[in-house]
């Protein structure tokens, strides 16, 4: 390794030497402190085994670290038993061999080795080696390890977020701001690829933003939705469902144990309850079963500016606004206009002058394959669903159809969240 760089495995098990170069014991682990700052975590000491006892050696007593061991500035040690202090992490026990999140790639990676760097006389965690070779190397006897590998699998620490929920004294958990920029589907992939405890830790961090938490639950597969709702109270489950899209909330409600469905449903806001109860009346393999009852419909006489104003006033998710339905005075479907056309149009232009198209629509009883065929034939991202009087009652989005067409285990099959 270059000067000023060490591997954790070269320190763990190495001799602990006093200022007279006499062996006092051996190094058992390296202690670093995690914080909110973006600086690399500093080494604050080490856990050593001396005379069969675990002791803490503070950083101020360390003269230098090298492949030959840890050299101290003193011949005396505090014999008090080792105890963790808040936000201290043991690199061997808590990081090495554990999963961490690469926040740049939204993947779980395993710390096969931990690299330390001497930065202005302070040793810090530089990053990890994720390669299989690193894992094999550290398990070899010290005399057989040889030189370290290349930097190809090295990940800098500032790209990583460790799981510390298992650390008894860690006041910090996954930092919300480090992972909140990830897409909900990426976060869901991470939850599904992680262990249960790690998944709980991700959801706890995500839960600081209740809207984001609901978006993540929408992306989880049925099995993991139930896994992470099982220990929550009915009120907590209802809180998640109340922020989900109505169609996704209805699907998840049906996945709950039967004795929990009605109590959870009755805890939802009245408007949400009505939408979900209506959706539950449709066969899940039909347009009614996959449609979203939340959509924007405006009169054909409205201008582009008025349609955009209506969109701003409605509490609808962005994906529900890709297409605006255009209706006649009696509420029947006239056609649709895309959000792009509205943005590009002169604000005073009536919708009927924007080239409103009259795409096919389906009734709630239409089978999903027929819905998929029509959306493919007409190159649609949204398909209106109408009642017997040709009034819109919902909209089917292309992502809902794609999700139904993919195999149930497609996320696991492609290993999207683990390197």
Number of strands: 20
What is the third-level CATH name, the topology of the largest domain?
Answer: SH3 type barrels
Specify the oligomeric state.
single chain
CATH homology group of the largest domain: PRC-barrel domain
Structural class by helix and strand composition: alpha+beta
The CATH class of the largest domain, by name, is Mainly Beta
Major sheet attributes: 7 strands, mixed
Total domains: 3
Low-confidence stretches: none
The N- to C-terminal Cα distance equals 25 Å
Q: What is Rg?
A: 29 Å
- Which word captures the global form? elongated
Beta-strand proportion = 15-25%
Number of helices: 18
Helix content class? 25-40%
Descriptive notes:
Helix 5 (184-193) runs antiparallel to helix 6 (196-206) and helix 5 crosses helix 7 (210-219). Helices cover 34% and strands 24% of the residues. Strands 2, 3, 4, 5, 6, 7 and 8 form a seven-stranded mixed beta sheet that branches. Strands 1-11-12-13 form a four-stranded antiparallel beta sheet. The chain has helices at residues 8-11, 91-95, 132-139, 176-179, 184-193, 196-206, 210-219, 222-229, 234-243, 246-255, 258-266, 270-279, 287-290, 304-313, 339-344, 368-377, 398-405, 410-413; strands spanning 5-7, 15-17, 23-33, 43-50, 53-58, 62-66, 69-72, 88-90, 99-102, 107-110, 113-119, 122-129, 154-156, 160-162, 297-299, 323-327, 333-338, 362-363, 382-386, 392-397. It is α+β, with helices and mostly antiparallel strands. Helix 16 (368-377) links the parallel strand 18 and strand 19 (382-386). The model has no long low-confidence stretch (mean pLDDT 88). It has 18 helices and 20 strands. The relative contact order is 0.08. It folds into three domains: 5-162, PRC-barrel domain (SH3 type barrels, Roll), CATH 2.30.30.240; 176-283, MgtE N-terminal domain-like (MgtE N-terminal fold); 297-404, CBS-domain (Roll).
């Amino acid at each position: 390794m270059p000067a000023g760089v060490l591997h954790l495995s070269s320190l763990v098990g190495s001799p602990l030497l006093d200022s007279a170069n006499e062996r006092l014991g051996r190094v058992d682990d390296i202690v670093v402190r995690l914080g909110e700052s973006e600086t690399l975590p500093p080494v604050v000491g080490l856990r050593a085994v001396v005379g069969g006892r675990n002791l803490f050696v503070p950083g101020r007593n360390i003269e230098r670290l090298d492949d030959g061991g840890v050299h101290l500035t003193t011949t005396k040690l505090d014999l008090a038993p080792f105890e963790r202090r808040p936000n201290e992490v043991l690199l061997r026990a808590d990081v090495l061999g554990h999963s961490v999140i690469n926040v740049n790639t939204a993947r779980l990676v395993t710390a096969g080795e931990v690299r330390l760097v001497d930065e202005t006389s302070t040793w810090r965690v530089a990053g990890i080696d994720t390669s299989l070779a690193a894992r094999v190397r550290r398990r070899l006897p010290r005399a057989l390890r040889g030189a370290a590998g290349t930097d190809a699998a090295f990940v800098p620490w500032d790209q990583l977020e460790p799981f510390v929920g298992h650390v008894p004294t860690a006041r910090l958990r996954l930092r919300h701001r480090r992972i909140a920029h990830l897409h909900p589907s990426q976060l869901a992939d991470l939850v599904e690829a992680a262990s249960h405890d790690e998944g709980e830790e991700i959801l706890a961090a995500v839960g600081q933003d209740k809207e984001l938490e609901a978006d993540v639950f929408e992306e989880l597969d049925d099995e993991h939705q139930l896994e992470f709702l099982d220990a929550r109270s009915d009120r907590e489950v209802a809180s998640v469902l109340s922020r989900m899209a109505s169609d996704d909330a209805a699907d998840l409600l049906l996945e709950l144990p039967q004795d929990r469905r009605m109590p959870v449903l009755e805890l939802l806001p009245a408007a949400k309850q009505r939408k979900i109860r209506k959706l539950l009346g449709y066969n899940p393999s039909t347009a009614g079963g996959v449609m979203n009852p939340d959509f924007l419909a405006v009169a054909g006489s409205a201008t582009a500016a008025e349609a955009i104003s209506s969109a701003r006033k409605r509490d609808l998710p962005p994906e529900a606004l890709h297409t605006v339905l255009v209706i006649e005075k009696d509420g029947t479907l006239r056609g649709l206009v895309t959000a792009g056309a509205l943005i590009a149009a002169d604000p005073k232009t009536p919708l009927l002058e924007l080239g409103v198209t009259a795409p096919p629509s389906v009734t709630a009883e239409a089978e999903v394959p027929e819905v998929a065929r029509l959306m493919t034939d007409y190159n649609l991202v949204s398909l209106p669903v109408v009642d017997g009087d040709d009034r819109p009652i919902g909209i089917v989005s292309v992502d809902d159809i794609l999700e139904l067409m993919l195999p149930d285990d497609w996320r696991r099959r492609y290993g999207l969240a683990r390197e």
